[in-house]
Amino acid sequence: SIGGGAEELFRRSVLGDQKAGERVAFLREVLVNLLVALIHLYNPQCVSLSGSLALQEQLTDSLETEVRSRLLRVSEESLHEIAPSRLGARESSLLGASQLAWEELQ
Questions:
Q1: Could you give phi then psi for residue 82, rounded to 5 degrees?
Q2: Where residue 78 falls among pLDDT bands split at 50, 70, 90?
Q3: What element of type H or E holds 84?
Q4: Other CB atoms closer than 10 Å to residue 90's CB: what's the count?
Q5: φ, ψ of residue 80 in degrees (nearest 5)
């Protein structure tokens, strides 16, 4: 068992821990599959990644290339970029929470 949360998992993976590396590879595969499914469903021009996991190079390194290789042509052509959010992890969480609160008030 790997304790300590995501940061510890990535740290141990970088240090060569095989089990941590396998878990990071699994997380990356899940992220790629999720992004492909969401892009096919919504056909966005841009996908913005946020939060602490979006800052992990082990997950995001060459992510756009891999996602694009799995997309249908129509989705791949309309997608301009997959990029980290310009907001920080805390700000993006607060923005999402405020949007949910606003929707409840409507």
A1: -120, 120
A2: very high
A3: strand 81-84
A4: 11
A5: -85, -40
For 70, half-sphere exposure in the C-beta direction (CA atoms, 13 angstrom radius) is: 15
Residue partners of 79: CB distance under 8 A and separation at least 6: 39, 44, 45, 46, 47, 68, 71
**Mean pLDDT, residues 37-59 taken together:** 86
Ordered DSSP codes for 39-78 = HHHH--SEEEE-SSGGG-HHHHTTHHHHHHHHS-HHHHHH
Q: How many helices (H) and strands (E) does the chain have?
A: 6, 2
Q: What is the pLDDT of residue 2?
A: 60
Dihedral sign for Cα atoms in the order 45, 51, 55, 58: negative
Q: How far is CA 64 from CA 8, 30, 76, in A?
A: 25, 14, 10
Closest CA to 53 of 104, 93, 81, 19: 93
pLDDT of residue 92: 67
